[in-house]
Write a structure and sequence with these properties.
The structure is a single chain. The chain is an alpha/beta fold. It contains 6 helices and 6 strands.
């Protein structure tokens, strides 16, 4: 039930009459996105609230740092479905993966000791029953940040014991 199996049906009506270019021709600098790949500009009450809370608590999300095009769908859920994936240990990674948009540095800023408590505060404020945590890689820290992540989970469970943490 959770996964699509077999052949995925395509909606040919969306693209069959598209007259724009789909392949880069010699001399072209870039292509315009076809309409079926364009997303709405993120806005709405939940989107604004989440962004304000995250900025105020100095928290990072993979949604913003990786420039996810679906951020408006997750954060903008006006029917109580707003979701955010919290990215622990800051917004700067020690690796430079070519496929990723997260900032990189061999010597990123030190970990924020208030981040575990701020994360728990934000999640409690939002009234979530389920939260997704991810993190940047921190090869500059002896335990790669494992103790920071475990402290965050402890704070989350302290704030709301029934919270499911992924």
């Amino acid at each position: 039930g959770d996964f699509i199996g077999g052949v995925v049906p395509r909606n040919e009506a969306e693209w069959s009459d598209y007259e724009g270019k789909l392949k880069l021709a010699k001399g072209d600098k870039r292509l315009r996105l076809p309409p079926w790949l364009k997303t709405e500009i993120p806005m709405g009450q939940n989107f604004s609230k989440l962004k304000k809370d995250l900025r105020g608590l100095k928290l990072a999300t993979v949604c913003e740092e990786a420039r996810c095009p679906n951020i408006g769908e997750c954060w903008g859920g006006e029917k109580g479905t707003a979701t955010a994936t919290i990215m622990l240990m800051g917004d700067t990674c020690t690796r430079g993966c070519r496929f990723c948009s997260v900032k990189t540095s061999r010597a990123p800023p030190p970990l924020d000791p208030a981040e575990p408590l701020n994360t728990a505060e934000a999640v409690a404020k939002w009234g979530l029953d389920y939260v997704v945590l991810t993190s940047v890689d921190r090869d500059d820290i002896p335990d790669a940040g494992a103790s920071h992540i475990s402290e965050t989970i402890r704070e989350l469970k302290k704030a709301k014991p029934s919270l499911l943490v992924e």
